[in-house]
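User: Hi! I'm working on a homework problem where we have to compare a predicted structure to a textbook description. Could you give me the structure for the chain below?
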Amino acid sequence: MESFDYIVIGGGSGGSAAAGRLAVDGTRRVCLIEAGGRNNNVIIKTPGFMPFIRNSSNYKFDTIPQKGLNGRVGYQPRGKGLGGSSAINAMVYIRGTAWDYDNWAAMGCDGWAYEDVLPYFKKSEANERGADDYHGAGGPLFVSDQRSPNPTSQAFVEAAQELQLRTNNDFNGERQDGFGLYQVTQRNGERWSAARGYVEPIREQGNFAIRTNTLVEKLVVEGGRVTGVMVRNGKRVGMLYARHGVILSAGAFNTPQILMLSGIGPAEHLKQHGIDVVIDKPVVGSNLQDHIDYVSGWETESDVPIGGTVKGTLRMAAAMVEHRRKRTGAMTTCYAESGGFWSVMPDAPSPDVQWHFVPAVLEDHGREQVKEHGFSLHACVLRPESRGTVRLGSRNAADAPLIDPNFLDDPRDIVVLREGVRLSHRIVDTPPMQAFGPKDRHPVDLDDDDALDHLLRERSDSVYHPVGTCRMGSDEDAVVDPSLRFRGLDGLWIADASVMPKIVSGNTNAPSIMIGERCADFVKADEKVHA
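Assistant: Happy to help. Predicted structure tokens:
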């Protein structure tokens, strides 16, 4: 049995930030436990290889059949290994809006208003544009402009301008609304995951132990305090002891799973799996939220977009050589190269739909191979009202949890999605996009609500932003308090997207890193109180 000051469970976006900040000064003995590997290979580091990141770095979860999606099973890719989902995502750097965080504070999350979280976003960031009122330049997370975006991605921004939709060169600045090219978490043309920023630079420090390919089976609770974790590595099972505490950062699916396997969650559900109840906490695994997303697709007469034709394949082969030599060219693509935010409903407090433009045809999350050249346009509902759950599939920690996002259960969500998709088509109908000779792969009468809704239910799915399953709040039902401490047990904090009381209006990687940064400071403040 080994002993540490702190154990961090999960080396993803929040866990890497929390572990790195706690270990970096050398005064604490910190252990970072990760179920996957190091994620330090050329496939992970090369942005253009994103579609080819397969089994070892991706949990590839499925949902249970979704009533709102005509009974279809949805796909939920999640990162496995150091960096977590920041090692397999599209690298889009978005924080959400000031309204999101001010709303958290209004919901009872004291100290989480925009003015409270902005310093942590700046602290984490190394933006190549430099520091200003909204950005940092000295943090571990490198943020860059794209090196070689596809011409169709810039044409998409020009197409939005044709409709008098404002251009926005900084979605994380004074205002979010508008259309433009996304900034990405890259450095010198390579993916820059949370692990590359926070973990790799200090991995050789004597006070920092990194245990990859190690599965956490459950938390150890003694006398109302979390004192360690039970882990498995291959056939070896053992316990790691935490003198001061455990930071649970396994993500919106695995964090509630680990809690429930530890006897912390809805009592009746735990009893069904033969698990002794330590704390009856019904909210654990509830309040699941995710951005429901519809992908419109067009084949093009032009071969400028990415495609799997002979010419397109040869072009990408040359791009691989260029990337290895110069770290430039088409293999620096994040795929979701441009996009934007806009309000489609008159009562929206801030943009309610986000678009991701991809200079390639996507079918079934990119798992279906498409040879034709073309482009795709995601439209996602930024503040869905539908709520789902995460539950245990079994009492085996290696088994996938039961994931039910309950997509489109609330009728308000499909209304917003419908209007977002209509605006997608209006943008593509402008001259800058028509110049590529697009042909709609899934034509529908856009004026017919019923026909459009049927198509949306047949083809919509996640855009990979699950949150909320261990929500933060000041009420007794909340899983963690505003200092991210578990309500009901000592020595336990949670630092990942599961603590979000309401989903942010945008991609969730940067906010998860911010949560990890804040958790490290909360833990340090707790040290001073108990010194």
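For your comparison, note the following. Residues 509-529 form the longest helix (21 residues). The chain has 13 helices and 24 strands. Good luck with the assignment!
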